[in-house]
Amino acid sequence: MDGQTEFAPGQRLMQFLIAIVMGAVAIGFFAIKGCQSGPFGRKQIVEMSDTEQVDLGKQAYQEVLSDPKSKVVDRGKIVIAVKEVTDRLVAATKNPEFLRMVKIPERKYEWDVRVLDSREVNAFCLPGGKMVVYTGILPVCKTDAGLATVMGHELSHALGQHGAERMSQAKLAQIGVAAAGAGFGGSQGDKERVMTILNAGAKFGITSYGRTHETEADHMGLLLMATAGYDPAETVKFWERMKAQSKGSSQPEFLSTHPSHETRIRDLTGWIPDAMPLYRASKNTDRPKVLPLE
Questions:
Q1: Are 157 and 125 in contact (CB under 8 A)?
Q2: Which residues of 137-175 are buried (b: 16+ CB within 10 A; e: fewer)?
Q3: Quick check: pTM over 0.85?
Q4: Catalytic residue ranges
Q5: Which end of the chain offers a freer environment for a tag, N or C, measured as fewer CB atoms within 10 Å?
Q6: Nearest to 67 by CA among 117, 110, 112, 109
Q7: Per-residue pLDDT reduced to its tens digit, 250-277
Q8: What is the DSSP string of the chain?
Q9: Of 163, 62, 73, 158, which Cα lies nearest the Cα of 111?
Q10: How far apart are CA 217 and CA 211, in angstroms?
Q11: Is 121 exposed, middle or buried (0-12, 13-18, 19+ CB in 10 A)?
Q12: Residue 76: left if φ>0, alpha if ψ -120 to 50, beta else—which one?
């Protein structure tokens, strides 16, 4: 009896370790299969092709635009101003020097933009190039260069395939957890312990790329807007305005997947010298123009 009592914990430990290894092997196989070189040479896991990302973006785009709550603005000065900015940014995505600096290939996306009448201070670009700008963000942008700061950042999420990468990371975590659960033969309580460990690893390791993506998009977006002929220094002015608007409402940086406004301003200021040659080489270096608000 004493021998059996001493053996059981060891057996459970072995099963526990085997389950962890099985989960890690499954994760590793998936990671190797989808690994590619991402922005600035960073290794990333993207399982989806460009075509699949375009199709996914189209579907999500239609869902957004067909939502009864969505009020699409289809004409007027605001639409013209937004389209001018996004057209310049899209053209800049093909610039060879920009692509060389960010170390990505040219994306064959189906770019399009819509303006939604809403107080929401937001804008986004879906995988594959579909963009949405809410009128609520325009007063904070203030100028076309401010809007180029926002949309350069959002386009960079698509160019960097961040959405597809996040989905691949989530799938990778699910595969690892499922493999470990299937391979563990202990009690239900022991299985739950394995799942907790792997899920914690997924949360704080595999899927904790939110801040990395945001910082990467800030860097790429700065270079993109400079290539399009917008003064890189305007990025700092935009984030100072955003900081003033959100004063007292932002949570500490260590609790957020987004960099703090102070961190963004510091990083962007440091990157501006690298962006200036792109700006000076552009043919559209006109002064910032105030955006129409109606």
A1: yes
A2: bbebbbbbbbbbbbbbbbbbbbbbbbbbbbbbbeebbeb
A3: no
A4: 154
A5: N
A6: 117
A7: 655 555 667 888 999 999 999 999 999 9
A8: -HHHHHHHHHHHHHHHHHHHHHHHHHHHHHHHHHEEE-GGG-EEE--S-HHHHHHHHHHHHHHHHHSTT--EE-SSHHHHHHHHHHHHHHHHTT-HHHHHHHT-PPP----EEEEE--S---EEE-TTSEEEEEGGGHHHH-BHHHHHHHHHHHHHHHHTTHHHHHHHHHHHHHHHHHHHHHH--S-HHHHHHHHHHHHHHIIIIIT--HHHHHHHHHHHHHHHHHHTT--TTHHHHHHHHHHHHTTTTPPPGGG-SS--HHHHHHHHHHHHHHHHHHHHH-S--PPP-BPP--
A9: 158
A10: 10
A11: middle
A12: left
Q: Which residue has the tokens 């303006």?
A: 115
List CB contacts of 288: < 8 A, sequence separation 6 or more.
143, 144, 145, 146, 230, 231, 234
Q: Output the CA–CA distances (angstroms, integers) from residue 290 to 26, 115, 137, 212, 276, in the order listed.
A: 53, 17, 13, 32, 22
> Count of CB atoms within 10 A of residue 30's CB?
20
Quote the CA–CA distance of 140 and 121 in Å, as a whole number.
8
Tokens in use for 159? Answer: 């160019």
